[in-house]
Design a protein that fits this description.
single chain; alpha+beta; SH3 type barrels; 15% helix; elongated; Hydantoin utilization protein C; Hydgase_assmbl_chp_CS; carbon dioxide binding; iron ion binding; Hydrogenase_HupF/HypC
Amino acid sequence: MCLGIPGQVIEMIDGYGGQLALVDVHGAPSRINIGMLDGDPPAPGQWVLIHMGFAVELVTAEAAEEAMRGLELMGRPRDADLGPP
């Protein structure tokens, strides 16, 4: 698993060649490119790890929590601004 910011898929965004999803990134809805993921697009409720606006890995809720704990160990609190939506 790579270190990335976890996000939970809300919905796929129409158009864009099926490459964009709306993802809840710690309370902030963000448009994320899912083109790097293998297989079918993620379903609403599934978790992804995000790096530079791209979903790079589909993960379990437990792995998403582990990634968030890793970010906290590096000094990024859960309520930190994760960037623009």
